[in-house]
Amino acid sequence: MKPALAFLLMLGGAANAADPAGVAPVSGYEFMEPATRQLQDDDFLNPAFFLLEQGRALWDQPWPDGQGGARSCRSCHGDPETGMTGVAARYPAFDAESGRMINLELKLSREVADRLGAPAPAYESDALLALTALVALQSRSLPMAIDVDARVQDWVDRGRKMFETRRGQLNLSCKSCHEDNWGQKLRGDTISQGHINAFPIFRLTWDEVGSRHRMFSWCMDSIRSEPYPFGSDEYLALETYLAVRGQGLLIEAPGVRR
Amino acid sequence: MASPILVLILGLTLAVGPRAMADPTLSHPPLTDQPGDPVRGLAVVRDASRASCLICHSIATLPDRDQGGLGPPLDGVAARLDAGQMRQRIVDARRVSPDTIMPPYHATAGLFAVGAKWVGQTLYSAQDVEDVVAFLMTLKD
Lengths: 258, 141
Known about the structure:
The complex is a heterodimer.
Chain A: H1 3-17, H2 34-41, H3 49-60, E1 63-64, E2 70-71, H4 73-77, H5 80-83, E3 93-95, E4 100-102, H6 104-116, H7 126-137, H8 150-164, H9 174-178, E5 185-186, E6 189-190, E7 201-203, E8 208-210, H10 212-222, H11 233-245, E9 255-257
Parallel strand pairs in A: 7-9
Antiparallel strand pairs in A: 1-2, 3-4, 5-6, 7-8
Helix pairs in contact in A: 3-7, 6-7, 8-11
Chain B: H1 4-21, H2 38-46, H3 77-80, H4 83-92, H5 126-136
Helix pairs in contact in B: 2-5, 4-5
C-alpha cells in the first residue's frame, strides 16, 4: 500500500471514531491507482480533453442576434481562460430568478438558450458536458468556494438528509459508504469520500465523460434505489450539500476516475 | 378488552423499539423443505450481478479477485455460527444488529426508495438463502 494512502486510512479510522465532518476532506484522486492518476495528471493523456475541442467550438459558435449581427459566448465573455476563471468553483449557487439552486450545467444550458437564442443543450449531452468541462477547467486548482447564506443552507440541510438516508433494496445511504467506510475495499474499488471536485470526470468504467448527477444515479442504481432525474431538486440539494462538504478541495476538472 | 399483561408487553415493545429487540443469537428456521445445496450456494455467492457477498466480505479459499473488506472475512464462519444464526443474518441482518450495513437478502419491509425494477422483490429467493447457508456451513476454518 502507498504510504500516503496508509496515512489517509489511519486518519479515516480516527475520523470515523470521532467527528467525520471535522477532518479535512480528501479528494477521490488520492484513492486512485497510480496509472489512473497519471491519466489525469497529463492533459495529453487525459481522455476528457477530447471533449474540450468541442467545448471551444461551441464557445465560439455564432448565433444570429436578430439585427444582422451574430453573438456567441465569446462575444460577451471573451477568452474562456480569462472570462470564466473561478466560475465553476462558486457553483451550485442560489438563483434568485427561479428561487432555487442552479448548478453549472443548468446555468450554461440556460445561457445558451436565453442569451444566444439557440436550442438549450440537454443534460448529459456531449455539447453540455463539453461546455461544462471547458468552463470547469478555468477553475482548475482553485478551491471549491460555495457562498452559503440562509437560502443555500436550506438546500444544504436537505441534501445532507438525502446523503444520510438509507435507500434501495440494499438499504445503504451515501454516508454508509462515503463517510463511514471510505478507504475500504468494495470489490475492486477503494471507496473514496465521494467528493465532486473533479467533475465532469472521464470514468474508465463508463468509457466516457459524465456529470455529477450521472454519478449520483450510478451510485443509486448500484444500491438498487430509484434514481432521480438529472437536474432535479433532489440532485441539486445533494450537489449543494456535497459542494459545501468538500469546501476547500481543489478543483480537478476534467478529472479521471476508475 | 385486552389483558393487562398484553397491554404491558405492547407498551414495552413500543417504548423500547426495534433497536433494542435486536439479538445477536437470533436464529431463523429453514425457509424451504428442500435441503440447501452448497455447490449452488457457492455459485450464488460468487454471482457479481446479484449483490454478491464478496462485495463486502472475503473468503480466502475462493480464487475471486477483488474481494471486499467492509465486513468481516467469512473464513471459519461455520465455527462461529450455527445454520439458524447464519440464515437469520442473510434473511435480515438488521434483526441481529440494527445499524448493520449488510443488506437484507430476504426481506422487503422497512426499505425506502427501492428502484421500480426491484420493488417487492427480495435479493435472494428462499432456496437461494438455503443454498447459501449450506455453502457457508462448509467454511469451518
